[in-house]
């Protein structure tokens, strides 16, 4: 067997093992159930909006012409924060959990590269959290189509798939953050504290960025925030949070011209991808040190 | 060929703590080598360097003729490791744990047959589908040996294999390890338990505060630790003149004290078996036979009262 197929086989073995472990975890069941509940509630309220024939909102699907996509966009806004918590909850102790269970030593003495272990885990958590999201969204989409008796156009379905891709990138960025936290800490408790700290910090950065930006241009709180007018430091604070680049709702609406967080669609997608790669590089570096075991 | 060659090996941690200092020794292939020392002596640091978990501060390591860490990946498949407390995935069954480790160790051909054999070897038959979280430490160690043997390694590194086990569990594990050495697996056993060394190893090197003494044969080491005179305390149900006469006939007997039946011997290996044999042959019934000092007691005295 070639070196590549050997590596692929080991990678799949790690991914399969971690996927099975992840879906058996209590935290997956708890946060997964909360996610499904929030997604359902969001879809319900989205459908209520459609029934009330509310006016179109900028950057969101038109309730009149894209009723199912609109309901799904509301579902996203209710549930995506929980999805990031789920992604972080699965990955924050990916390595420290193995260390405290003494299985990391068992892995380290075997002919498997640490990169393979790290990326095997990444794919496993993506399959668990992303899989739950994809299944829930597809079931809701079909359910909403039946309930509203509207058949989405092929374009709407394409935009749904695109938006799901964006959400999956968003989930990946939090899995990458979790893996970084796990590679930097020594115990599961440290990892948990680190994960909570980072999650809260990202939120604080966003609010601080908005507050500082508004203060700099002498504006009070507004629903339509003029990000483009913000000074650089305020923008950076906002852009650090992968959530500020989440253009899933825009994708559902096929509105690619609207600026999100002061950036165009392509720039947001690039930064979303960067927010996956940036944490993975130091995670790889720290986990690859020989004393990481 | 040597299974392990250490030359001037030194490990200094941050804050100037020296765990291993200028250590050199070789472990010839096929031997059972024991590294004996109290906890904190530096044994685990040597193991961690052998397994490439930490880097030496100075010196060289060769395993099966390959330089460590540079060529570690070339010998990884030929080395097995049993940690002091082997870790497994508790929510998986024992056989699923072995399957997983087989998959990442490139053991795919005849995987199921191999796993079945290892369960048999480790004495875990009937526990294949049991969740590992319910395993005792003894069973975990057995499973650890099975996992370490998946690649059919030429060198097996064992860290405190008997620690934490009850007497029966310890006996079983040591018998299993001995069995592996009989089948030509080189053993490198690090322990603070002198009995493990006496039962398993051919060669022993003692370690204290980062320094490793020159290896000697276990026979020489045991004789040296015990000293020349050993007392045996025999508990015999029917002591009579015939039995005492038989005991006096054993080579090396210095004196017999009838009260409590303490027998002083000039030590030689196998003396316990000889005493047991003559007592039984003379019609005596031996309930127990205890060496005084025992090997552990003698070793503790030698180490100045500290082996842990």
* Average pLDDT for all residues of chain A: 93
Count of discrete alpha- or pi-helical segments spanning 4 or more residues of chain A: 11
Low-confidence stretches of chain B: none
User: What is the number of independent domains of chain A?
Assistant: 1
Give the overall silhouette of chain B. globular
Which range does the strand content of chain A fall in?
under 5%
First-last Cα distance of chain A: 29 Å
Secondary-structure class of chain A:
mainly alpha
Share in helix of chain A:
over 70%
What does the secondary structure layout of this molecule look like, with pairings?
The complex is a heterodimer of chains A (293) and B (308).
Chain A: H1 3-24, H2 26-51, H3 67-91, H4 96-100, H5 103-108, H6 114-148, H7 154-184, H8 188-216, H9 232-240, H10 248-253, H11 265-288
Helix pairs in contact in A: 1-6, 2-3, 2-6, 3-6, 3-7, 6-7, 7-8, 7-11, 8-9
Chain B: E1 2-12, E2 18-28, E3 32-36, H1 43-50, E4 58-63, E5 66-68, H2 72-75, E6 79-82, H3 94-104, H4 111-121, H5 137-148, E7 155-159, H6 167-182, E8 186-191, H7 194-200, E9 203-208, E10 211-212, E11 216-217, H8 218-226, E12 229-236, H9 241-248, E13 253-257, E14 262-266, H10 271-281, E15 286-292, H11 295-302
Parallel strand pairs in B: 3-8, 3-9, 6-7, 7-8
Antiparallel strand pairs in B: 1-2, 1-4, 4-5, 9-10, 9-11, 12-14, 12-15, 13-14
Helix pairs in contact in B: 3-4, 5-6, 9-10
How would you characterize the overall build of this protein?
The complex is a heterodimer of chains A (293) and B (308). Chain A is mainly α. Chain A has one domain (3-292). Chain A has eleven helices and no strands. In chain A, α2 (26-51) runs parallel beside α6 (114-148), α6 packs antiparallel against α7 and α7 crosses α8 (188-216). The radius of gyration of chain A is 20 Å and the shape is globular. Chain B has helices at 43-50, 72-75, 94-104, 111-121, 137-148, 167-182, 194-200, 218-226, 241-248, 271-281, 295-302; strands at 2-12, 18-28, 32-36, 58-63, 66-68, 79-82, 155-159, 186-191, 203-208, 211-212, 216-217, 229-236, 253-257, 262-266, 286-292. Chain B is built from eleven helices and 15 strands. Chain B is α/β, with parallel strands linked by helices and 308 residues long. In chain B, α5 (137-148) packs parallel to α6 (167-182) and α9 (241-248) runs antiparallel to α10 (271-281). Chain B has two domains: 2-224, 3-Layer(aba) Sandwich (Rossmann fold), CATH 3.40.50.300; 227-302, Alpha-Beta Plaits (2-Layer Sandwich). In chain B, the strands form three sheets. In chain B, strands 3, 6, 7, 8, 9, 10 and 11 form a seven-stranded mixed beta sheet that branches. In chain B, strands 2-1-4-5 form a four-stranded antiparallel beta sheet. The relative contact order of chain B is 0.13. At the A-B interface, α1 and α5 of A face β6 and α3 of B.
